[in-house]
């Protein structure tokens, strides 16, 4: 997203990242703690100790060092970690190959949120989608009312993320570009999951148009497939920021874990200090084995920049 205009009165912003939560703030509660220290009563040593604790806590907030309370540390040797990642990569390739035989519906809604929590703008894009055998994405827009966003603009990178890193996190062909850090295991519902932090080995050049994932993935310890991801598309620039989103997958036809829901609730902070709170919700549904090949239709039917369809009038 690209910011459009400056909004005053924003004192605190919160930016969620794949490895925890990063706070960059003016007026953060920690920063506003009133340390009414009377040196004559507690002495210089106590003051220095209090100051050290304050700096340490602030550093934790800034660096985003936080873990899920249900995350269990687990020691695995590198051979086992490599086995998990190798099998996950193979399975993701099989999953993407299987996905090319399915058609499905996607409904994406992006909202900007005002100071009082009210919705100040909406971008809605409903599509009928499928993939070709070589991974190309085909999209037919089924509903696209006139966007009412005024604080941010939807960019080609946002559209790419809606069909790329947001639902799928890792493209199998791009996995060699990533560094994986094993964190442990976490149980979600009945699933026992391996948890990895993921980051690009080298951040892509924004001018080249390549989109990669920065965040965290959860891998089922039985199927060795990604069942959940949380992160964002990168690279970013000072004028183009992207939300952290969380995607859940579900088992479709008893074989593969397909994305079913992506949600995000973030504040985008641009290089000039302009901050916009936004929400994103994308549903993927009606997966059906619908074809064996893709017929390439005219470009206007699958445009990434469609003309808005009129909003239906109320009866």
Q: What do you see in this structure?
A:
The chain is α+β, with helices and mostly antiparallel strands and 315 residues long. It has helices spanning 39-63, 78-99, 156-163, 165-168, and strands spanning 2-3, 12-17, 20-25, 71-72, 102-113, 119-131, 137-143, 152-153, 178-188, 191-200, 212-220, 226-234, 245-252, 256-269, 275-289. The chain is globular, with a radius of gyration of 22 Å.
User: Strand share of the residues?
Assistant: 35-45%
What is the helix content?
10-25%
Mean pLDDT: 78
Backbone shape: globular
Biggest sheet strand line-up: 4-9-10-11-12-13-14-15-5-6-7
The profile of the biggest β sheet is: 11 strands, antiparallel
Count of DSSP E strands?
15
What is the C-alpha radius of gyration, as a whole number of Å?
Answer: 22 Å
pLDDT under 50 segments (min length 5)? 5-66, 292-304, 309-315
The DSSP helix count reads 4
Helix-strand makeup class: alpha+beta
Alpha-carbon distance between the termini? 34 Å
Reading the helices and strands in chain order gives EEEHEHEEEEHHEEEEEEE
Question: Keywords for this structure?
Answer:
single chain; 315 residues; alpha+beta; eleven-stranded antiparallel β-sheet; two-stranded antiparallel ribbon; 4 helices; 19% helix
Secondary-structure map:
Blueprint (H helix, E strand, L loop, with lengths): L1 E2 L8 E6 L2 E6 L13 H25 L7 E2 L5 H22 L2 E12 L5 E13 L5 E7 L8 E2 L2 H8 L1 H4 L9 E11 L2 E10 L11 E9 L5 E9 L10 E8 L3 E14 L5 E15 L26
Antiparallel strand pairs: 1-8, 2-3, 4-9, 5-6, 5-15, 6-7, 9-10, 10-11, 11-12, 12-13, 13-14, 14-15
